[in-house]
Write a structure and sequence with these properties.
The protein is mostly helical. The protein has one domain: Tetratricopeptide repeat domain (Serine Threonine Protein Phosphatase 5, Tetratricopeptide repeat). Helices cover 70% and strands 0% of the residues. Helix 3 packs antiparallel against helix 4 and helix 4 packs across helix 7.
């Protein structure tokens, strides 16, 4: 938050909002996650993963039209993305992290992101 406050015109500001939105999503703070992820996409619509995280947050919030639109935007940028591929990229064995991540997989699947193998 200090980085955003200290440098409100930073060209990488979209990444800060994306990271904070992803953290909110992991912590189950869906409304805040939605706000931050939307803001990140407004600033830079060319990052596929932010669209996929927005798809997960939207579907978990019951916003299925937005989840579908975010899924499609993400797949346009990364047509080979699947939940299975994302699952294989986990960077931690921490039990809390893994349980939080399961909720994100659920959101991605609810949004219609391809399951993969």
């Amino acid at each position: 938050m200090n980085a955003i406050r200290l440098s409100p015109r930073d060209p990488g500001l979209d990444r800060w909002d994306a990271l904070l939105g992803i953290a909110d999503l992991f912590l189950g703070r869906l409304e805040s996650a939605l706000d931050r992820l939307r803001k990140s996409i407004e600033m830079n619509p060319n990052v596929a993963m932010v669209h996929f995280f927005l798809a997960a947050a939207s579907s978990l919030s019951g916003l299925m039209d937005e989840a579908s639109a975010a899924r499609e935007a993400g797949l346009r940028l990364d047509p080979n993305f699947t939940v299975a591929r994302f699952r294989n990229e986990r960077r931690s064995q921490n039990a809390t992290f893994l349980s939080q991540r399961e909720r994100i997989y659920e959101g991605l699947l609810l949004a219609g992101v391809p399951k993969g193998e």
